[in-house]
């Protein structure tokens, strides 16, 4: 029989599914003919499809049926949120909308509130008419209504309501429902912003000194909320603190332990705020933790944070890591940091931040990964390019003797199959990697083999750059590489200019060396021919290539000149290098690039040459050297004089160049490293005693849970010892509260000039209310006394 | 001022389709878009390459000195929030300066004045909010795919959600279960579903009572359905999570009653595997490997062998039950899993595998975990946990050694009947196409330059499939190259690759004692990335 029961329910479940899919279809495809009854039934739920005319909207808003009112409201809300420039149209309905604020239907009320919040400052007189109704909702039986009311009231951007708002906050702050108290924290923030919006140049610090100022009142309200025991209230109170009183540590000092003890129960967003705050707090106000002893407060915080590694929110975990690296770095080993971070790796945006965090920690050697964990960082074809880039970056950072083969194989695979962007990233990272000679040789081989088949210009340039760095680091160890590269200079006309320039620069550097073995001698002998080939196509080259040809020739010619001078022989002015040098000087002297002309002139003034010493030479003169020397022998004499300065040239061009410093690709000012930066200051030990006193201050812990009626809740253990717990009798929410409503106020003031010069009056009223309030408070005290005695 | 001052939703062409201002002043969508566009031009040569301005930008970024923007893509729409940034550091203010003036002198005061605390916002706060908002919206729209039309149609619902989710520029109430209580959805579908659920509940209840020999028909009116019908009239629920303080389980509705008690677990795992190329067998001339269907026994160690697991819990249980779910972890190391806030993590850390919690009513994500098979300390045969489909890619076959073969083997498993949507994507070097030579099952399809070997919609287990093919150059002549890699995707029900099982699931305290809830466990496997090189 039990089987039958199950079957039947499955049957019905299927029926439900089918029905809902039919209905779905019907909704999406309006052509489906449905029975008129069902059609009416459906259209009720989807009336927002309709475009309403202005009279229909007004009619709907003035209707007595909730359904019709909501249809109009939904239409208006849709206009408000989805159509830009719908403002004039909506304002025209504003009075009709506001009329419905007294509705008992929560949905209607919510929609009216939303429209009110958006346009109240544009039609202030009408908006103010709603205040009375909102205030009435503050005493509603239902906490959802009360919470909504105080949040809405505080969202009205008319400064005239400030006194009413402050008084309303004063009463909702001790509401029995945590939702309402939490909403009050929100209202405090908005009240503060509304107030300061109209006192822009006021200094908050000085305003706080005046007890009657609005900031000072709100400050005291927030102090009450921060003393609450309900995590919902504390969460909102912390957000409020963060937004409007971030520097007011006096609010935190006495409550620090209390707040920390509630950490794990807070909302995730507020956990982050509290952990971040506690991180700075610990540095500024707690004794520096040592491995053999940490402050009690920190020990509590540490124990609370341990369980947060299981959080499903990456923001909480990043905040936790920030705490440990700034405050308790020696405890980092105790939390499974690597595993806590890698669990967030996926294919979403959060992954980008977690990977950045890992890069940050790796750079500071704060986290380590075993070789078996490398697979977390293997790029996948279907993920965001940013994620793949970061993963490769991490892989290269993790390269070691043990895992080189493993990672290298992975990188080779990427160079075969990945996108150009990722390939570039791989090569750039490898270029900055300092490995053993064997590793470097393997990378070099890889690059050389890729050069031939690679067609993407930027990639070729990166390969050559890598090879250049390699040769520069160890010339004679990598002479074969250089030989192959020079071969490419001649054979491959498609070579990217950057690559070309890099190789030529390298050749120039090589020419400076003393050739030690056969291979280098052979290459050295080949250089003049190589240069001849390069100069032949000089005019067609890019700027970068031209510069490098000029530089390389300068190096070679100065080497020759210097050598002949050292040996006291006369320089051979028939040398190929000399001729090429002069030719290139002539080319560059008249080049279109200013920089190139400049360099040319500089070199021409240092080294002997024909181009700058002979004024008769111009751009078009073709120098026939043999003939020329015959005609202008005196030029050669000038050259010989110039030869005395050749040392300067040697100094300029033949100093050994430092190998390129690897510019770390992980920029250090990204948002993760900025975030991980806590306050740079530390505790002033002299003040520790003073801070301890501040922390020992008593405050009234607000615990409303004694009066709970919810059956399933158990009593929370009291954690805070230093504080006196006051079991506040929650104010009966439905109690009559004599606050003069705005309507009464308007009646008194007459119909015109509503708010002009009303300051005195409202001030007076405030006092009256204050009196009421204190009477109420007395009542409260009495109540709680009787409660205690009973 | 704060984290979130406004929220926009834009379509794929960067046109605004929804806007909500949380706190003014807030930037306009046009301004945000213009700033983003100008930032994009700085970074990329060709902004026209993609339809949306967002695709190339960081998920959280400062668009000028005052505003920070965060965005995410959900289905076909982009969610964007903008908020005013705080200064990085704030000075500490203290109102007891007066005391210091008297005795401690200037020294202490100077010290005080320079004290600053950092206020840099955690960028992930934005992303977390966007993710939460996306989850909530999708849940309220019954999991519908978010399209511009859908957003416009439900603009008022989105606004009602936002009214609770964000206030004073800060996330306010973001828990899905709490929102469901505060904002009962009254969509037509929910009405029908709740009504039919009620009928179904009553029916099964009466059958049960008949079975027990009782002729009395309980006129059981479940509180939850009563409540939902009240919502439709706009009447508020009688009791609410937030009515009183001291509620330690704010994620669970108050006074939950169900006529039919059940708890269902969905265990879902996504496979991520990378298998390096097998050593190509020595070509035996004449004998075609075509008839040798078995997979080679010798396999190289995978580059990646991991599973992402998620456990969903769906319950309708009366009262306040404490549920204990015991998983047989099969000796796997689950690392540091993520749990829903209702889970007692202490119990887990003491005895991994035991999840104890008071569940929210309805469906929620109980836990998430990651298994990295390569990371296990005890050597295991990782191939046992590869899921129900075994794959192999062999190149260099045939007389000219220019053919390759993909072999699939669906393992015989008692609990798995079918492999669903099995397909193999073949990624080839630039300018190449695939020619299928012999295909035992399914067929080769080419769509948008992607070549796929697609098998039957539901393939029975215990069979071998082979694809023999070669690569062609754009000219049409065969090439000696082999595919760069192939990726396999499928899904199946009845097992998860890690072979983790639910050992037991019981209510250890609370809840109604006389009703034995119906229990069910579903195992589902998806593939994230199975790659053969």
UniProtKB/TrEMBL annotation, chain A:
Classification via InterPro entries: AP_beta, ARM-like, ARM-type_fold, Clathrin/coatomer_adapt-like_N
Predominant location: membrane
Keyword list, A-Z: Membrane, Protein transport, Transport
Compartments (UniProt record): Endomembrane system
Domain Clathrin/coatomer adaptor adaptin-like N-terminal stretches: 59-607
The keyword Nuclease belongs to this UniProt entry's keyword annotation: no
Annotated region described as Disordered, given as residue ranges: 748-790
Residue spans of biased composition, Acidic residues class: 762-790
Domain of life per record: Eukaryota
One of the Pfam families matching this protein, by short name: Adaptin_N
Keyword Membrane tagged: yes
Family under the similarity heading: Belongs to the adaptor complexes large subunit family.
Name of the protein described by the UniProt record: Clathrin/coatomer adaptor adaptin-like N-terminal domain-containing protein
Organism: Ogataea haglerorum
TrEMBL record, chain B:
Superkingdom of source: Eukaryota
Annotated InterPro entries: Adaptor_comp_med_subunit (IPR050431), AP2_Mu_C_sf (IPR036168), Longin-like_dom_sf (IPR011012), MHD (IPR028565)
Species this protein is from: Ogataea haglerorum
Biased composition (Acidic residues): 93-108
Keyword Transmembrane helix: no
Keywords (A to Z) from UniProt: Membrane, Transport
Location, primary (coarse class): membrane
Protein name listed in UniProt: MHD domain-containing protein
Start and end residues of each MHD domain: 280-533
Residue span of region Disordered: 91-115
Annotated compartments: Endomembrane system
């Amino acid at each position: 029989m039990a089987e039958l029961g199950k079957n039947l329910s499955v049957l019905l479940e299927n029926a439900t599914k089918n029905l809902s899919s039919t209905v779905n279809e019907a909704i999406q495809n309006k052509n489906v003919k449905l029975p008129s009854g069902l059609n009416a039934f459906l259209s009720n739920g989807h009336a927002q499809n309709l475009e309403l005319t202005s009279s229909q909207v007004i009619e709907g808003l003035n209707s007595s049926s909730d359904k019709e009112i909501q249809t109009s409201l939904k239409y208006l809300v849709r206009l408000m949120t989805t159509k830009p420039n719908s403002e004039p149209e909506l304002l025209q309905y504003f009075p009709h909308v506001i009329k419905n604020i007294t509705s008992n239907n929560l949905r209607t009320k919510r929609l009216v509130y939303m429209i009110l919040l958006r346009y109240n400052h544009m039609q202030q007189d009408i908006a103010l008419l709603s205040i009375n109704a909102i205030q009435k909702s503050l005493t509603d039986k239902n906490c959802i209504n009360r919470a909504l009311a105080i949040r809405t009231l505080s969202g009205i951007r008319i400064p005239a309501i400030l006194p009413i708002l402050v008084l309303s906050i004063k009463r909702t702050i001790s509401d029995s429902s945590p939702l309402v108290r939490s909403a009050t924290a929100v209202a405090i923030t908005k009240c503060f912003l509304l107030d300061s919006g109209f006192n822009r140049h006021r200094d908050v610090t000085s305003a706080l000194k005046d007890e009657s100022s609005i900031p000072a009142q709100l400050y005291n309200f927030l102090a009450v909320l921060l003393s609450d025991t309900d995590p919902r209230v504390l969460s909102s109170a912390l957000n409020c603190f963060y937004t409007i009183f971030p520097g007011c540590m006096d609010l935190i000092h006495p409550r620090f332990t209390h707040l920390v003890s509630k950490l794990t129960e807070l909302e995730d967003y507020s956990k982050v705020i509290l952990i971040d705050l506690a991180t700075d707090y610990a540095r500024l106000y707690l004794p520096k933790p040592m491995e053999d002893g940490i402050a009690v407060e920190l020990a509590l915080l540490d124990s609370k944070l341990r369980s947060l590694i299981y959080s499903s929110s990456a923001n909480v975990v990043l905040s936790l890591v920030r705490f440990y690296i700034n405050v308790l770095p020696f405890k980092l080993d105790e939390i499974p940091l690597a595993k806590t971070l890698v669990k967030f790796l996926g294919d979403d945006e959060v992954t980008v931040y977690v990977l950045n965090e890992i890069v940050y920690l790796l750079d500071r050697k704060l986290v380590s990964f075993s070789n078996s964990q490398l697979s977390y960082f293997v790029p996948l074809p279907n993920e965001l390019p940013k994620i793949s880039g970061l993963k490769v970056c991490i892989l290269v950072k993790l390269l070691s003797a043990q895992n080189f083969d493993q990672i290298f194989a992975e990188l080779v695979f990427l160079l075969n199959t990945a996108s150009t962007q990722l390939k570039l990233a791989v090569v750039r990272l490898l270029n900055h990697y300092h490995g053993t000679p064997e590793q470097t040789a393997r990378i070099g081989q890889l690059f050389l083999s890729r050069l031939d088949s690679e067609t993407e210009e930027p990639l070729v340039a990166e390969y050559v750059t890598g090879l250049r760095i390699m040769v520069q680091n160890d010339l004679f160890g990598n002479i074969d590489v250089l030989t192959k590269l020079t071969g490419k200079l001649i054979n491959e006309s498609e070579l990217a200019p950057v690559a070309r320039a890099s190789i030529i620069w390298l050749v120039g550097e090589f020419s400076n060396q003393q050739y030690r073995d056969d291979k280098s001698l052979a290459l050295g002998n080949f250089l003049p021919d190589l240069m001849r080939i390069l100069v032949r196509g000089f005019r067609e080259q890019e700027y970068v290539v031209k510069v490098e040809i000029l530089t390389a020739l300068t190096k070679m010619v100065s080497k020759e000149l210097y050598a002949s001078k050292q040996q006291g022989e006369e320089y051979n002015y028939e040398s190929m290098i000399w001729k090429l040098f002069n030719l290139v000087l002539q080319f560059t002297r008249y080049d279109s690039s200013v920089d190139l002309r400049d360099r040319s002139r500089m070199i021409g003034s240092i080294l002997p040459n024909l181009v700058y010493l002979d004024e008769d030479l111009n751009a078009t003169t073709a120098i026939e050297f043999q003939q020329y020397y015959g005609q202008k022998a005196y030029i050669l004499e000038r050259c010989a004089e110039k030869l005395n300065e050749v040392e300067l040239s040697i100094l300029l061009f033949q100093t050994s160049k430092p190998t390129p410093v690897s510019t770390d690709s992980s920029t250090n000012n990204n948002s993760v490293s900025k975030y991980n930066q806590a306050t740079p200051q530390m505790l002033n030990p002299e003040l520790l005693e003073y801070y301890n006193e501040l922390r020992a201050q008593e405050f009234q812990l607000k615990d409303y849970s004694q009066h709970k009626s919810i059956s399933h809740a158990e009593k929370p253990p009291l954690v805070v010892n230093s504080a006196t717990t006051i079991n506040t009798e929650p104010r009966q929410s439905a109690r009559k509260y004599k606050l003069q409503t705005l309507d009464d106020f308007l009646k008194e003031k007459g119909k015109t000039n509503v708010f002009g010069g009303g300051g005195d009056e409202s001030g007076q009223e405030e006092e009256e209310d204050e009196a009421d309030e204190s009477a109420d408070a007395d009542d409260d005290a009495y109540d709680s006394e009787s409660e205690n005695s009973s | 001022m704060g984290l979130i001052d406004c929220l926009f939703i834009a379509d794929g062409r960067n046109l605004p389709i929804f806007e909500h201002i949380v706190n003014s002043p807030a930037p306009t969508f046009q301004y945000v878009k213009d700033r983003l566009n100008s930032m994009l031009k700085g970074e990329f040569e060709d902004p026209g390459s993609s339809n949306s301005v967002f695709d190339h930008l960081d998920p959280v970024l400062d668009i000028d000195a005052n505003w920070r923007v965060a965005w995410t893509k959900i289905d076909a729409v982009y969610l964007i929030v903008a908020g005013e940034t705080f200064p990085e550091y704030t000075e500490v203010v203290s109102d007891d300066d007066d005391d210091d003036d008297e005795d401690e002198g200037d020294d202490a005061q100077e010290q005080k004045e320079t004290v600053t605390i950092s206020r840099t916002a955690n960028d992930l706060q934005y992303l977390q909010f966007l993710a939460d908002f996306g989850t909530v919206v999708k849940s309220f729209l019954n999991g519908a795919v978010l399209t511009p039309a859908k957003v416009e149609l439900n603009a008022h619902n989105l606004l009602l959600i936002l009214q609770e989710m964000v206030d004073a520029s800060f996330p306010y109430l973001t828990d899905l279960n709490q929102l469901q209580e505060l904002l009962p959805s009254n969509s037509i579908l929910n009405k029908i579903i709740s009504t039919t659920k009620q009928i179904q509940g009553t029916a099964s209840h009466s059958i049960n009572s008949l079975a027990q020999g009782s002729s009395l028909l309980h006129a059981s009116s479940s509180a939850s359905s009563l409540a939902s019908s009240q919502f439709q009239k706009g009447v508020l629920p009688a009791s609410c999570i937030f009515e009183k303080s001291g509620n330690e389980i704010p994620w669970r509705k108050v006074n939950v009653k169900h006529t039919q008690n059940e708890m269902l677990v969905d265990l879902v795992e996504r496979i991520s595997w990378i298998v390096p190329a097998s050593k190509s067998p020595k070509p035996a001339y004449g004998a075609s490997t075509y008839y040798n269907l078995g997979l080679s026994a010798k396999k190289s160690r995978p580059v990646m062998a991991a599973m992402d697991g998620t456990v969903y819990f769906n319950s309708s249980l009366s009262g306040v039950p404490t549920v204990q779910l015991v998983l047989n972890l099969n000796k796997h190391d689950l690392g540091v899993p993520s749990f829903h806030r209702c889970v007692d993590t202490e119990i887990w850390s003491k005895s991994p595998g035991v999840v104890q919690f008071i569940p929210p009513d309805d469906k929620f994500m109980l836990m998430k975990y990651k298994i990295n098979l390569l990371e296990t300390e005890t050597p295991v045969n990782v191939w046992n946990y590869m899921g129900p489909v075994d794959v192999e890619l062999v190149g260099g076959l045939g007389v000219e050694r220019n053919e390759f073969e993909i072999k699939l083997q669906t393992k015989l498993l008692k609990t798995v009947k079918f492999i669903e949507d099995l397909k193999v994507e073949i990624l080839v070097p630039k300018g190449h196409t695939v020619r299928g030579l012999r295909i035992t099952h399914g067929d080769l399809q080419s769509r948008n330059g992607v070549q796929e070997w697609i098998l039957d919609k539901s393939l029975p287990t215990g069979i071998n499939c082979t694809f023999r093919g070669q690569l062609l150059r754009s000219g049409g002549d065969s090439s000696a190259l082999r595919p760069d890699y192939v990726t396999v995707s499928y899904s199946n029900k009845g097992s998860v690759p890690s072979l983790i099982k639910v050992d037991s699931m019981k209510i250890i305290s609370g809840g109604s004692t006389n009703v034995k809830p119906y229990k069910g466990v579903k195992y589902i496997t998806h593939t994230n990335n199975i790659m053969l090189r």
